[in-house]
Amino acid sequence: MGIYLNPDNMGFQESLNSEIYVDKTGLIALTNDIICTRQKYVCVSRPRRFGKSMAADMLTAYYGRGEDSREMFSGLKIAEAESFEKHLNKYNVIRLNMAEFSSVRNMNDKIGEIEKVLLFDIKKGFRDIELFDNTQLIRSLKDVYAETKIPFVFIIDEWDCIFREQQNNTEAQKIYLDFLRNLLKDQTYVALAYMTGILPIKKYGVHSALNMFTEISMTNPEKYAEFTGFTESEVKALCERYNMSFDETRRWYDGYDLAGISIYNPRSVVMSMLGGHFYNYWTSTETFEALTVYIKMNFDGLRDDIVRLVSGESCRIDTTTFTNDMVTFNSKDDVMTLLVHLGYLTYDIDSKTVSVPNYEISEQFASTIRQLDWGEVAKSLKVSDELLKATLACKSDKVAALIQQSHMEDTSILKYNDENSLACVISLAYYSAREKYEMWRELPTGEGFADLVFLPRKNVDLPALVVELKKDKSADTAIEQIKRRQYTDKIKDYTGDVLLVGISYNSKEKTHSCVIEKIVK
Q1: What is the domain partition of the chain in residue ranges?
Q2: Which of 58, 82, 162, 387 gets the highest tally of CB atoms within 10 A of its CB?
Q3: pLDDT tens-digit profile of 20-62?
């Protein structure tokens, strides 16, 4: 019927035509549950390239009266739902992608342009309806609804793009939020308002201009979690279809823990299946500066926490202070929360902690730290290749020298004041091992600080590594403790060779020593 009003279904048809299409029409059943109710306002935020526009195209095709979509959805999951027939092609859909209007910089002009294109479609699509004032968008929508009794479904993609384009223009942001509020809030012609973006709705103080929306985000996905990306069962099916290693796919692209559901990065999974190998597909679509800008921010403890995250630890944060923009930061927690929304970290809602989700993202963090040249931290990452080679060659003096070289006294995290700090140092020093090994941290059992356990990945012909760390005790003592404890639960069923690596740190002399012993099994 129009470009913005009841558009054609080609957007979703392209997804169906693609070599890889994962059926996410179960999302429609959720929106059917809330359509024409008090809960009809939903704002879904997730990182770039996580399928936001595909979902918007799908909802447009299902609800819109522009074309008959029955055949398109037959055979998909939604066709089995009781609500399928009730809502199929029953609404006037207004589909907007706010990024399309980004060239108009003045906010009042931008809103004027949006109203202008919508009014054009309305006047063209409802020629037989007399409009009280065909220059007023809201009044015209009311007139159409009063005459037809067919409400509108609003699908607004990239709703938050102006907060990224005009980050410091708070006046323009308020004008935009007021426009959306007046257009949608308490309007009887609205059957459903579904918005997508990277950021949740902007807050001013403790309030939101769009407080009628239920916010679905990377920190609180609610029942929409499985539609944020690919689930484990969906990825397993793709790996079987394309003869790709599921274990490697999981290592590279899994790790987003959303309400207990393990979510994979959809962009990277699709590209790896089609390309036949694993690579940093998603991070290659982002700029280096996208991560650099935020981890350079000078909040107390931020750098230390970033180092801990890269070493494999998790950090507790408070997400409630984040104001949902890219410029207002009052603490390291605000920065961390933004990184969750951008997809660089994952958030565990139960423990309220963040961690680096997968190998692809970990590599981006490590690359960023190297380029920022974070002193001894960057040095540690740079020598990690050499350290692994020296360890596998059982060159204990070389191992001790390399760890000494990467001794990180300039960062408060790395002053060796507890077992976590000491293990963090060694985890970073052995960062390169993660390409060929799975790594675990084991907490102390009353003596010593911590174990690091490295098990070779499938089809990797290397010995396992058990690293025991000691402070102010000999490296031989570390080896003896490993043997006394009969290794670790992580390798009790492992049948290959094992290298026992004892590392000692002398806190007075600030020196390291190392002993390596090979166990042939």
Answers
A1: 10-216, 229-372, 382-521
A2: 58
A3: 999 999 999 999 999 999 999 999 999 998 999 999 999 999 9
